[in-house]
Amino acid sequence: MDTDEPEIGIGIIERYQDQGLGRILMQELISHARAAAKPSVRLTVFVENERGRHLYAKLGFTERGRREVVRSERFAGRRMVLIEMGLQLPKEAPP
Ligand SMILES: CC(C)(COP(=O)(O)OP(=O)(O)OC[C@H]1O[C@@H](n2cnc3c(N)ncnc32)[C@H](O)[C@@H]1OP(=O)(O)O)[C@@H](O)C(=O)NCCC(=O)NCCS
To answer: What is the CATH number of domain 14-88?
Structure first.
């Protein structure tokens, strides 16, 4: 959180996916960034990750760009497209 625009990322192990935990974790991270007065947050998501893309879009993230990356040997050096997304965090109105 020591940058103007923190990069956030989560991972849910398979058997707990699609039960709303990702949303809760993301909302926590966004609240944390907002409390730290960050103007925005960013993340990256692989184009194939339809669940993640759905979740991030629903939370208000918008696409900023795409780039091709070469995965490590663990992923057989596959070329994949990574989407860069951002979310603006407007300052909350004073009470
Ligand atoms: C992507 C990930 C973080 C999402 O977390 P999660 O706990 O599974 O997500 P949630 O249950 O909170 O929300 C999932 C949403 O996607 C929707 N969804 C599920 N499968 C989908 C699919 N194939 N296409 C589109 N939407 C889908 C669900 O309906 C839900 O949306 P809704 O609330 O509008 O109904 C998690 O699945 C994950 O870690 N995946 C594997 C690793 C990974 O991709 N990490 C992120 C790297 S960018």
So the answer is: 3.40.630.30
